[in-house]
Amino acid sequence: MSIHIRDVREHELDSVLALNNGAGPAILPLDAARVRLLFDRADYFRVAIVDGHIAGFLVAFTEGAEYDSSNFRWFKDHLDAFVYIDRIVVASSRRGAGVGRVFYADIQSFAEVRRPHIACEVFLEDGNEAALLFHGTFGFHEAGQHVMSESGKHASMLVKPLQAYEWVRDTYLHGRDGELPSVPWLSERARDGAEGTRATGT
């Protein structure tokens, strides 16, 4: 099975909304306006394509984003710079097929050249031991717990230090031309409808 990761396209937002709201209690529901806000403001918003269909999506923000999630604000209060995974959703028919792991490899390659940490939360009320184990195997640790003011959900707040960032910062961001090399896999999210491409996995 080939898994292709690329930037979401505007005409796919209805499919993203349906996928999100069919994911179950571990994922907070969205409406069309909220999906549009994510599309407009997220620093990372990519979909996984399997056999020509959207098999999942991942949305992430950097610490300077204009975003009102209380979990995002919690991380802003505890970390100086980070990439925050707001949500990852994988279609039920594709769970266990490696889509989540390909997404996490991709978001790490995006984050580690830009920020020293990746942050995310896992809700604790819904029997999410598998999700906690999944994140633990990727090097995340609990930095605290938080109850969301907007939903009352109790979350484990997870952080992963990115060891490559210090070298990238010293070598490129604070040296040479102060910029990352101009190559496709380091590019920012396309905002003008261009078809950004990131990774292919199995």
UniProtKB/TrEMBL annotation:
Recorded coiled-coil stretches: none
Q: Write down the superkingdom of origin.
A: Bacteria
- State a single Pfam family of this protein: Acetyltransf_1
Q: Where is the N-acetyltransferase domain?
A: 3-163
Q: GO MF annotations for this entry?
A: acyltransferase activity, transferring groups other than amino-acyl groups
Q: Which InterPro entries match?
A: Acyl_CoA_acyltransferase, GNAT_dom, UCP028520
- The name of this protein is GNAT family N-acetyltransferase
